[in-house]
Amino acid sequence: MWYLLFAYHLERSAFIKLLVLYAGLFFCAWRIIEHSKFNFWALAGIGVVFRFLFLPAIPNLSQDFYRFLWDGRVLVQGVNPYLFTPEQLQNGASAALSLISLQNIPEQGMLIEGMGSLNASHYSNYPPVNQLCFAFAALFAGKSILGSAVVLRVVLILADIGVLYFGKKLLEKLKLPTKNIFWYFLNPFIIIELTGNLHFEGVMLFFLVWSLYLLHKGKWFWAAVVLGISVSVKLLPLLLLPLFFKWFVNNKQCKSTLSKIEGSTALRVTKLGVFYFVTLATVTLTFAPFLSSTFIENFAATISLWFQNFEFNASVYYVIRWIGFQTVGWNIIETVGKILPIVVVLILLALTFIRPLDSTRDIRNTRTQHLITGMLLGVSAYFLLSTTVHPWYIATPLVLSVFTNYKFPIIWSAVVFLSYSAYGANGFDENLWLVAVEYLIVIAFAVTEILAQRGDRKGNFRVVTD
Question: What is the spatial distance between Cα 427 and Cα 279, in angstroms, rounded to a whole number?
């Protein structure tokens, strides 16, 4: 089976083998999703089996899990993992030695070597609920790297099953085909990057999809709590908060009907304010045990690195960087890294007040599907403008696309593995031609779909109010 080859007989530097295996797996997934006659639960069972094939495997495409294990083992020693880098602990920082002995961290040398010098020299940037998962692995298998990896993998498999469960229920409420969720659950990109390589986007997306389902059901208070937990796994959902304004307040195309259903505009604004407060309060509560001035300084410094120091698989940024080299003669990432997040915020605000190009006929579905479409377009713009886009990041636009009429993230999940060409036998060397091919394909599909949605909006869109 190709998944077994991927899990146990593949090195990251073997790019051609990686690409051929992935292309074959993606084609098979497409055939199963679009042309098989299996029922929903049969497909779900296939997805679970594929994930369990990776259960005793060490991730072979990413080193990040070594840092996950390190943070978890430090945390169970009673030490704040945000205060010291692994290198500081290894080198015997005086403050660190008063709190922890490296002798109490099993396999600490292997973990630091495995995560690499770049990761070991920076403070942790993984939010508290994520750290809780790492600590869970340390508690149950803290003396074995493989055992800890198995524990984390079980957590991620359960999270994917949660995405499947709430995704199916939300698709049914939105009157969309339930098979759409399998573009997440059976997608080899998700199985390899999340289950195989232990990236926790899956846990974040479980809470995000659960929150969207609760919101659609009208349980907005608990939706806010669950969204806050999602943020405390990965910070990305924080970007999406402005988009909830329209769901609560600004629905001009069905304003009168919504007023009858949910009360006055003042009441809806109040609900929005409480929603934001509860979300941010939940995030604050999860961070509370770690809060200190040193934590804030270290965490902010680490987050800023992603915008101003790191470069990988970028699109628009690489074009801007090339222009910078041609005009001023050096890499302008430090300047651009400060400007691009502002552009992203402006795009999100524009999406907040402009109805996304998507169509649905039911009033409540209109609100929810437009919210998710706005999220999809917003997070896609964020990644297109980012300086660093690791393959597993695409899991977020992929799962959001399941609940919309846009499918370009599926194409993105198919071509994003071209970025692994950077990891050759002789070290890191990014092939910008392949990066260009990846993004030209994705952008071409996205533009085609946006134009198609625009045509549908002009010709066919209407809201049923009776």
Answer: 43
